[in-house]
Amino acid sequence: MPSTWVPLPTDSGYGIDNLPYGVFTTDHEPDRPRVGVAIGDFVLDAGAAAHAVGATPEVSAVLDAPSLTGLMAAGRPTWRGVRAAITTWLTDPGLRASVEPHLIPRRDVVLRLPFEPADYVDFYASEHHATNLGRIFRPGTEPLSPNWKHLPIGYHGRAGTVVVSHTPIVRPSGQRKAPTDAVPSFGPTRRLDIEAEVGFVVGAGSELGTPVGLGDFADHVFGVCLLNDWSARDIQAWEYVPLGPFLGKSFATSVSPWIVPLEALDAARVAPPARDVEPLPYLDDRAAEPWGLDLSMEVRLNGHVISRPPFASMYWTAAQQLAHMTVNGASLRPGDLFASGTVSGPEVGERGALIEITWNGENPLKLPDGSSRTYLEDGDEVTITATAPGPNGTRLGFGEVSGRIVAAR
Ligand code: MN
Question: Pfam families of this UniProt entry (predicted)?
């Protein structure tokens, strides 16, 4: 990979090997969203740069746009061509004079929701997380349900409440009923939690009735973001039988503003953990190069690191999830979002939700400021970050997904 003429801070996660896409506005033009690409401490105004260098009409059309929808829908050959073009603009010294005026300091832009969420599906792919939750919710029984190692379990969530990082999260109200209560009560959740997850954003759609096989993953998935699946555990525990999560999850799901292209993640691909149950053929990835990803995640509560979930430990990969999600012929649309499920590793310090970290409140978490938490309090801020291996020993940054809890209304 050639080096960029853009000055990069040491250990910038936004080097020339990353080039994540987002959508931004400026204070000067708050009503004109534009496609941006992160490089160092700057955001490249991609549409303006395309015009400045005289890019092809195909490249200009998808970058000089108020959203990423056109680029996402265009498919893998266009994604590859556009990425190659942007790489040239940021590395060819002869183009510097044309491109540099379209670099905006990142602190001067407002990052918007990077895509228009179409459908939203959330999975449950960490064996450690599913085992911990089984032990907490169904003590004395087998923690994993009988289907867990045969199919990636998921549910359809609420696409309309997917929000970008830094959107305030209003504490939801609903029905709560502890096992010891005779009847449910109504009020603000007392068990507001996080789920540290990785989100996969679909670009190219598929035809209704035609499954998307394991090998077609990279033709449909545009890129990867970070995701916090906010969860009201008391509402969830009372409502989830027999149809699964509903109002305990649907009030808000936060995503990071940068989508890291799948092409940037070649060096991050790893084999998933050994599976002890043979999958059915449509989920069997043993013959192909599998899609485990070695993301190192960090979860901070009010600035303190409370967990370091390892994404490489996930039992089911995103390619298996996509294959399963479409095996019945359900079609894909640009903007479909599917999330990994809570990322929890085998160690206590690797758990991606407070319900596991505090064992449903039994073991409060002590924070360095002297306070302790079972679940989130009003005013608390949770931030999830991640990095992944890039080419030649570099690290790719995913930025952050952050949210602060505000009081119930
Ligand atoms: Mn979740």
Answer: FAA_hydrolase, FAA_hydrolase_N
